[in-house]
């Protein structure tokens, strides 16, 4: 998938994932392979929206049915507090599960976001 299409999917998933309560983060405390980050969540979402492919740009690739299933399974796993399992499910799609502490509000959420490559793409 093109980087811009991944940004679109990531921002939709990011926005959806922000609805998860800090309870899920605390309940899944033992998830060893899941990184933790902090920052201003609103700024992160705004950046993703700015980077989204624009209509008719040709930069968006629709996910395959298999990719949609994997993302759906990952969301289900996150909702059930199984963060390591969700991380494993999306690894092949170049996404990662992240525990995120919003410094602006103090809320803890779980993000499903595109993994950034070393070249920044």
What's the helix and strand layout?
Elements (H helix, E strand, L loop, with lengths): L2 H15 L4 H6 L8 E4 L1 H11 L13 H15 L3 H8 L4 E8 L5 E7 L7
Brief digest:
The protein has 121 residues and is of the alpha+beta class. It has one domain (3-52, 64-114). The protein is 45% helix and 16% strand.
Describe the protein in words.
The chain has 121 residues and is of the alpha+beta class. The chain has one domain (3-52, 64-114). 45% of the residues lie in helices and 16% in strands. A three-stranded mixed β-sheet has the order 1-2-3. Strand 2 (95-102) and strand 3 form a beta hairpin. Helix 4 (65-79) packs antiparallel against helix 5 (83-90).
Instruction: Supply the helix-strand structural class.
Output: alpha+beta
Cα(first) to Cα(last) distance is 12 Å
Q: What are the secondary-structure elements, in order, as H or E?
A: HHEHHHEE
Helicity range? 40-55%
Shape: globular
Read across the widest sheet, the strand sequence of neighbours is 1-2-3
The main pleated sheet reads as: 3 strands, mixed
- Which whole number gives the mean pLDDT? 80
Low-confidence stretches: 17-30
């Amino acid at each position: 998938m093109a980087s811009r299409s991944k940004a679109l999917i990531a921002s939709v998933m990011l926005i959806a994932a922000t609805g998860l309560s800090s309870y899920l983060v605390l309940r899944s405390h033992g998830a060893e392979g899941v990184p933790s980050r902090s920052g201003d969540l609103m700024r992160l979402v705004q950046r993703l929206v700015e980077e989204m492919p624009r209509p008719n740009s040709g930069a968006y690739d629709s996910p395959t049915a298999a990719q949609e299933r994997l993302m759906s399974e990952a969301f289900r796993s996150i909702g059930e507090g199984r963060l390591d399992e969700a991380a494993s499910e999306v690894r092949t799609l170049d996404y990662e599960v992240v525990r995120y502490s919003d410094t602006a509000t103090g809320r803890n959420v779980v993000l499903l976001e595109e993994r950034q490559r070393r070249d920044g793409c």
